[in-house]
Specification:
By secondary structure, the protein is mainly beta. It has one helix and eleven strands. Strand 10 and strand 11 form a beta hairpin. It is globular, with a radius of gyration of 15 Å. It starts with a strand and ends in a 6-residue tail after the last helix.
Length: 176
């Protein structure tokens, strides 16, 4: 789904992929959230949530972190309680990065990748990464505080060719 929708509160982002072939190194994909302040919404993130961590205030948690993609359906899950974020935070960008420990690996190299963004039982966005198959990382959704209206979301699939650490520094930058 694309476009801008108003009033999201508590959202879950889930990620899936198939395990690597037998004998190959495991594919490890990670959900990453960058939180930005109202003073600098496109600058450096105030903080990041990734790799089995949570935000300092407990509003964003990575509750399931898969290192192999083994499991049924969506193996990795992050919950964002946007309605509880402090007022000085105005933007949250969520992305997915592929660990590059065994050489360059892109979304096109990983079978059955998918990410789903949902609020309760309502799917807000679903991506399969086909449009960024040559990328090693991608943003998937952007949430922005919209004054008294609450939080809006925008599907934001955008590919990057970088390692996870460098991705966290550029994932929230304005589109060129």
């Amino acid at each position: 789904m694309s476009g801008l929708n108003k009033g999201v509160g508590k959202v879950e982002v889930t990620l899936k992929w198939d395990p690597s072939p037998i004998g190959a190194s495991a594919h490890d994909l990670d959900i990453i959230a960058g939180v930005y302040t109202a003073d600098d919404p496109y600058g450096a993130p105030a903080y990041l949530v990734h790799f089995d961590s949570r935000s300092p205030d407990g509003t964003i948690t990575l509750s399931r972190d898969s290192r192999t993609g083994q499991g049924f359906g969506y193996d990795e899950a992050m919950t964002l309680e946007l309605n509880r974020l402090a007022p000085h935070y105005a933007r949250v960008v969520v992305g997915v990065a592929i660990q590059q420990g065994s050489g360059r690996l892109t979304f096109g190299d990983v079978v059955n990748t998918g990410v789903r963004v949902a609020e309760g039982y309502t799917e807000l966005a679903v991506h399969g990464f086909e449009d960024v198959a040559g990328a090693t990382a991608a943003t998937v959704v952007e949430f922005t505080r919209d004054g008294s209206e609450g939080w809006s979301y925008r599907s934001a699939l955008r590919g990057f060719d970088t390692d996870p650490r460098a991705f966290t520094a550029v994932m929230g930058a304005k589109n060129a």
